[in-house]
Write a structure and sequence with these properties.
single chain, alpha+beta, two-stranded antiparallel sheet, 18 helices, about 450 residues, four-stranded mixed beta sheet
């Protein structure tokens, strides 16, 4: 009889070390951490910060300077900030770093971890979480129960279990406990409804749940080790049509899922990244003024979903709606606003130049024959006042794993997003620390820099 998937995944987890990871996987894990931390620092400049500060004060009994009472709440805090700008990493599904790295950093505070430990935990989190996410089979593109936080809890559980040095059986039970406590992220309301909200995919709750699952398992709590198998398996809990358990096989000749992690160039949903990129390229190709005064109309051909609410909203009212608005994101890109908090300044939503530009944008479904498999391709046609037409096309957006951004781009992104939270020297010192992470026996510099809202170096 085959061992249940929880034990197979646990075997991988306990045997993973920095020394048995390919060098490119180690480097990719560091890039994932750099990108997530940049988004974390940028998230401090969004409306979620005040809410998190109030939450911290409530939990601490009124104090605004007390540390978090437990790692699970710390993970909630980190994941909220990392995903606040919708600029965090991407995969075939979801934003794994928001949960994996939030949990790893939260637990590292309690586990006396080294840089080597942290890298191994991050890789384990991506490998376990992403495999489970891809094992969920859906016959329809937009199922009723839809949300990536539901499976991202496992990445958080894996990273936490690794740093807590759980044994094989404890790690397996951590996965089982995570499964039965996974959040059901109602993105049909929080994202695809008429008013997108900050809840989005419940990544913060997933990060919190994964950390709790690991601590519960260490304390002796147990869950059903066959939670992934059979007609009552996790896939059914997640509202899926089935499961491909072959995706949960993991071993020495494994294909590393972390290699398929991509990073974003623009602060918006991944399915509209290519539309923004194509529009920016069209304006540059036509040598058109950024304001678009000489443009009569902008035709954008993209995935069918981009052509309907909430993605076709030309006048989003707040940061959450703006992250899913193709016209708004295109305007921000064309106007050359740096991706990040500046996209969502309150003045942007009433800015005349922005409104005039978004009013010229028309969205049309791109024929399936014009679209690469698994990628959200886009084509843009600019119709100028003089009758000239400028066309550009983007098959795979910059930042996708199939079209990766250069490490230098990600380093610049980190330095820019952290500028509102760290001094110039602090930013450079942190970046250097992260690039040399496997050499660090002490993580206090990293953990203390991110620990308290509003702290700086």
């Amino acid at each position: 009889m085959n061992a249940p998937a929880t034990l197979t995944l646990a075997d991988y987890l306990v045997n993973t070390t920095l020394e048995n990871l390919p060098s490119d996987v180690v480097e990719k894990a560091k890039l994932c951490l750099i990108d997530s931390l940049g988004c974390f620092f940028g998230g401090h400049q969004t409306p979620v910060t005040s809410g998190l500060e109030r939450l911290l004060a409530d939990i601490a009994g009124g104090s605004t300077s007390a540390p978090f009472p437990d790692p699970a709440w710390r993970a909630f805090h980190y994941a909220t900030l990392a995903n606040a700008l919708d600029l965090d990493d991407i995969y075939w599904k979801g934003h794994p770093g928001a949960t994996v790295i939030a949990a790893a950093l939260a637990v590292a505070n309690r586990s006396d971890s080294t840089g080597r430990d942290l890298i191994a935990a991050i890789v384990a989190g991506y490998e376990v979480g992403c495999r489970i996410g891809m094992s969920i089979v859906n016959d329809t593109p937009r199922k009723t129960v839809h949300g990536h936080g539901t499976w991202q809890i496992f990445g958080a559980a894996a990273a936490s279990a690794k740093l807590l040095k759980l044994d094989r059986r404890q790690a397996a039970h951590a996965f089982a406990i995570a499964a039965v406590n996974a959040p059901v992220a109602s993105v049909m309301k929080t994202v695809y409804g008429t008013t997108p909200t900050m809840a989005k995919n419940n990544f913060a709750t997933a990060a919190m749940g994964g950390v709790n699952a690991a601590f519960l398992a260490r304390a002796g709590f147990e869950g059903p080790l066959d939670v992934f198998e059979g007609d009552t398996g996790f896939w059914r809990m997640a509202g899926a049509d089935g499961a491909d358990l072959s995706r949960l096989k993991i071993g020495p000749d494994m294909r590393y899922e972390i290699r398929d992690i991509g990073f974003k160039a623009f602060s918006c949903c991944r399915i509209i990244q290519s539309s923004v990129e194509a529009a920016v390229e069209a304006f540059a190709l036509g040598a058109i003024e950024e304001t678009g005064d000489d443009v009569r109309g902008v035709e954008v051909f993209a995935s069918e979903i981009v052509c309907r609410p909430p993605f076709n909203d030309p006048e989003p009212r707040d940061i959450w709606a703006a992250q899913f608005s193709a016209p708004f994101a295109i305007a921000m890109g064309v106007l050359r606003h740096a991706a990040g908090p500046g996209w969502f300044a309150p003045s942007r939503f009433a800015e005349q130049t922005v409104r005039e530009l978004t009013a010229k944008i028309r969205l049309f479904p791109l024929r399936s024959a014009d679209r690469a498999h698994h990628h959200h391709a886009a084509r843009v046609c600019l119709h100028l006042l003089g009758g000239r037409v400028v066309e550009t096309a983007v098959e795979v957006a910059k930042g996708d794993a199939a079209n990766p951004l250069a490490p230098s781009f990600l380093e610049e992104k980190f330095l820019r997003l952290s500028a509102g939270h760290l001094t110039e020297n602090g930013r450079l010192e942190m970046l250097q620390f992260l690039k040399q992470l496997q050499l660090k026996d002490d993580l206090r510099f990293l953990l203390e820099t991110i620990r308290v809202p509003g702290s700086s170096h």
